[in-house]
Structure formats: structure tokens, C-alpha cells
Amino acid sequence: MDEMNEKKNEELLGELSSQEQVKKRRSKKRKLVASVFVLLLALGIGGNWYWENSDISSKLSSVATSAKTLGEATFVDGEAEATTAPESEYFSSARLERQNARDSSLEKLQAVIDAPQESEDAHKLAAQQIADISSYIEIENKIETLVKAKGVANCLAVISEDGSRVDVIIDSEELTDELSLQIKDIATSQLNCGFENVTIIQSAS
Q1: DSSP bridge partners of 202
Q2: Average per-residue pLDDT in the chain?
Q3: What interhelical angle do 2-53 and 55-84 show, nearest 10?
Q4: What pLDDT, in 10s, does the model give residues 140-181?
Q5: CB atoms within 10 A of CB 144
Q6: Alpha-carbon span 172 to 97, nearest angstrom
Q7: What is the rounded distance in angstroms from the CA atom of residue 33 to the CA atom of residue 46?
Q8: Residues 64-90: pLDDT tens digits?
Q9: pLDDT at 51 over 50
Q10: Nearest-angstrom CA–CA distance, 31 and 25
Q11: Does the predicted model carry a pTM greater than 0.90?
């Protein structure tokens, strides 16, 4: 009996010893984690102080500001260059007439939409026509931009009210077959119409 009691006591002492070792290891790990956390916190505070009180932040800020300023200056200069070339009186007048006609049509259509006595179908038709006009304006701008990219000094595109055809007026000393084909190709691809529905007018501006 004494031997059995001694063995049990030894086992209990062993378990207690192992538990104490586990506790000690956990305590060491906690202390290590706490030390690392404190070290990182100190480094963060020190780094932030250094950043705020050194020339690095001011230098980077100045570089970013310079880049932004340079970008804005480039944009402004580009816009100035784009508007410095004077447009001919013919094209200016034609653009104004086109704009006035469109504004008048939009006002009439908007009046139909705003009129309570008009039917629902009339409202829908007017709204669709307004959307069509907005689409025509966008297509005209694309045609003009693409035609100018072919070396044409100036261009004005006018789409008919039903959107079936387009007149492309160009400011060019010479209208070659190649240029004519390129313009027709641009207009048909943008308006989704046939070559026969594209009229090219050469203006002597």
C-alpha cells in the first residue's frame, strides 16, 4: 500500500510539474508578445515623429503638387492651342444655324412632354425624339472629329431629322477619291446608313 501511495504521489508531482512548465512557457510567450507589441508601438511613434519633423514629407508633398500643377498647365495649354486656330466665318455660321435649329426642336418637344393635355403616346414620342436628337449630336461630333483626323482643316456634319442621311461639309482644298471614300466610310459606320445616304460638300471657306 505504501508503494502504491508513493507512486501516486510521484505521478501527481509529475503532473503538477508539467503544468507549471506549461504555465511558465505561456507566461514567456505572453511577455514576448507584449515586448514585441511595445517595440512596434515605439517604432511607430518614432517613425511618425520623424516623418512629421523631417524634410521627406515636405519633399514628397511638393513633388505631388508640382506634378498636379504641371498636369493642369499642360491641359490648359492644350486647350488654348485647340482654340487659338480661328474657325472660318462659314463654318461658324453653319454651326450656329445647326445649334439654333436643334434648340428650337428640343424646346417644342419639351413643351409637348410638359403639356398635361397631351396623350401618353405623344409624351413617349416626344421623349424618343429628344433622345434621337441627343444621339445625332453625339454622332455628328464623332464624324467631325474622325474626319479632321484625316487631315481635313474643318468639318461639319448635319444629320437629317429622321436620321437616315448625313451631309458632311469639309474645308479642304482638294477632295480626292481616297478622302471621299474615307469620309463616307466614317459617316456610314457612325450613322449605320448606306454610302448613298452620305453627301460630301466641299466648302470654299
Answers
A1: 170
A2: 74
A3: 50
A4: 999 999 999 999 999 999 999 999 999 999 998 888 999 999
A5: 20
A6: 21
A7: 20
A8: 333 333 333 333 343 434 443 456 788
A9: no
A10: 10
A11: no
CA angle 136, 113, 190 (to 5 degrees): 10
Angle ∠(39,42,46) on CA atoms, nearest 5? 140
Enter the C-alpha cell of residue 151: 487631315
In this structure, what are the phi and psi dihedrals at residue 148, rounded to the nearest 5 degrees?
-65, -30
The total number of residues written for the chain in this structure: 205
Which of 157, 156, 200, 196 has the alpha carbon at shortest distance from 178?
A: 200
Asked whether the beta carbons of 143 and 155 are under 8 A apart, the reply is yes
Amino acid at 169: I
What is the DSSP code string of the chain? -HHHHHHHHHHHHHHHHHHHHHHHHHHHHHHHHHHHHHHHHHHHHHHHHHHHHSHHHHHHHHHHHHHHHHHHHHHHHHHHHHHHSPPPHHHHHHHHHHHHHHHHHHHHHHHHHH-TTS-HHHHHHHHHHHHHHHHHHHHHHHHHHHHHTTT-SEEEEEE-TTSS-EEEEEE-S---HHHHHHHHHHHHHHHT--GGGEEEEE---
User: What's the distance, CA 43 to chain centroid?
Assistant: 40
Cell 507566461 belongs to residue:
27
Q: How far is CA 130 from the centre of its chain?
A: 25
